Amino acid sequence: MEKMPYRDGEQLDVHAVIAGSQSTTTSSDWRQALPVLTGTMVTLRELRLSDAPSLLAMLSTDEVSRFISPPPTTVEGFERFIAWTHRERTAGNYVCFAVVPHGMDTAIGIFQVRQLEPGFGTAEWGFAIGSAFWGTGMFIDGAEMVANFAIDALKVL
Fold first, then answer.
1. Higher-confidence residue: 17 or 6?
2. First vs last Cα of the chain: how many Å apart?
């Protein structure tokens, strides 16, 4: 899989970028805000700044990071990543869902889908889940919802 296009190190006001995207929504216009998708084990929702510490803890371990593009190495780096995901979603290029197990409030991983050609005619997806949650069925629960979202909402062919 080609590396995802996010590059850490951008300077911006992350709080201003995602200020309008903090509410929970079930809207069908994914460019405005991602819908909340609920499975049997996990909820998929828009990333929040408050997810940055848990994502750092879950995705920066050697066990996880060896399978993905290098993740940010600080909470601030994950905050910049979260702000980037919101900008790219608004532009219609990319979506990134937080994976939140039922009974928890913060993300333990992500599912991302990016267009490879305009309009999502062809797309690529990626995911990363904290190793403590491997083998629990949470990936399959989330993956099915993301695949359905990609086909139904993004119109991936």
1. 6
2. 18
